[in-house]
Write a structure and sequence with these properties.
With 387 residues, this protein is of the alpha/beta class. It folds into two domains: 249 residues, Type I PLP-dependent aspartate aminotransferase-like (Major domain) (Aspartate Aminotransferase, domain 2, 3-Layer(aba) Sandwich), CATH 3.40.640; 120 residues, Aspartate Aminotransferase, domain 1 (Alpha-Beta Complex), CATH 3.90.1150. The chain contains 13 helices and 17 strands. Helix 1 runs antiparallel to helix 8. The radius of gyration is 21 Å and the shape is globular.
């Protein structure tokens, strides 16, 4: 038995990361300094977007995006139930109403057939937007979703927190990276420690829309600007104006320094995640009683998570935990949470997501997972399933 805990995910901090943070801590700026802009430019290049706005966490980024899209009380927005609560909560922060659309049984992403059915069953204008999630790192095909959105006059807020570096192939055979702004109006990424890029807490909002970018920047910083071209008056170099009621959703410079350093290794991390996923697939794909993730040929899966499905998920979870493997469940469907039940959601509203939830388990998946540790995880899973 391995005598240390193997978590489902964890950060990788190198000496170079530490040095980057230390240098920034010793610089003139701890916040509102040059590292923020440097990180934003680097990340925008990485995903292929025109603009990027760094924020203090992805939940703040989702709120900022929804607020900038002008979600208002009573606005109805379609959200996948298979996500972390923040993907839906951002609508509620603005007073909007969340309508859940069930998932596809193979990809675990929002089912576009059910999405269209939902739109057909309601008068045009009922809904304002869609929030798809690149769940587990699997990129949602936003090309086909954009066609639906345009037909019904909807915006798309892509929750790409699981999928930096992931992409799908469009009808022209071109790679469309998650968060590149080609089809989504705005996208949000997370830099939580278990994600691909870690800054402690942190996030990024990307867009190709210049007007939306200006709103994101303004609302991120209290609704305050010092831009001389935007001021109503100008009393001198010190002068600033609060033009809107905004928020303090800024990232610090030392977090940005860590993000810049981490970003340099992002592609190496993706390659390692692919290797880990392939080994799991080799070990489990022919085993009766284990369902492995399906990955179709037109996508590059970023594998934030590696999720299997088994009949006795509760038993396997406990068995692994007793053996120091801290697997996790992603997620309790959001519509099943008490808060959303109080708003009228009911069990059986999204039967595919609910069935998936009964059987899913996320196995350890992070670049520094060793071959020995992974083989240990595989052995513990197999001994339980085959008993």
């Amino acid at each position: 038995m391995i005598d240390k805990v193997i978590p489902y995910g964890r950060q990788c901090i190198t000496d170079e990361d530490v040095q980057a943070v230390v240098e920034t801590l010793r610089s003139d700026y701890l916040t509102q300094g040059p590292k923020i802009t440097e990180f934003e430019y680097a990340f925008a290049r990485y995903v292929g977007a025109k603009y990027a706005v760094a924020v203090n966490n992805a939940t703040a980024g989702l709120h900022l995006a929804a607020f900038s899209l002008e979600v208002k009380p009573g606005d109805k927005v379609i959200v996948t139930p298979m996500t972390f609560a923040a993907s839906a909560n951002c609508v509620r922060y603005c007073g909007g109403e969340v309508v859940f659309c069930d998932i596809d049984k193979d990809t675990y992403l929002m089912d576009v057939v059910k999405l269209r059915q939902l739109l057909v069953e309601n008068p045009k204008g009922t809904f304002k937007g869609i929030i798809p999630v690149d769940f587990a790192g699997y990129p949602q095909n936003l090309e086909e979703m954009r066609e639906i959105a345009d037909e019904y006059g909807l915006w798309i807020l892509e929750d790409a927190c699981h999928a930096p570096g992931g992409y799908f192939m469009d009808e022209r055979g071109e790679k469309q990276y998650c968060g590149n702004g080609r089809y989504a109006n705005v996208s949000v990424f997370s830099f939580h420690p278990v994600k691909h890029i870690a800054t402690g807490e942190g996030g990024m909002v990307t867009t190709n829309d210049e007007e939306l970018y200006k709103k994101l920047c303004l609302y991120r910083t209290h609704g305050i600007t010092k831009d001389p071209t935007s001021l109503h008056e100008n009393h001198g170099g010190w002068y600033y104006e609060m033009q809107q009621l905004g928020f303090n959703y800024r990232m610090t410079d030392f977090q940005a320094a860590l993000g810049i350093s981490q970003l340099k290794r992002a592609n190496d991390g993706l390659i390692r995640r692919q290797e880990i996923a392939h080994r799991y697939y080799e070990a489990f794909q022919a085993v009766e009683g284990i369902v492995t993730p399906k990955v179709f040929g037109n996508v590059y899966h970023a594998f934030h998570l590696y999720i299997i499905q088994v009949e006795d998920r509760f038993g396997l979870y406990n068995h692994l935990r007793k053996n120091n493997v801290y697997a996790q469940v992603h997620y309790v469907p959001v519509h099943m949470q008490p808060y959303y039940q109080q708003l009228g959601c009911k069990k059986k509203d999204c039967p595919v997501a609910e069935k998936y939830y009964e059987h899913c388990l996320s196995l350890p998946m992070f670049p520094t997972l060793t071959e020995e540790e992974q083989e240990y995880v595989i052995d513990r899973v197999l001994e339980f399933v085959r008993k």
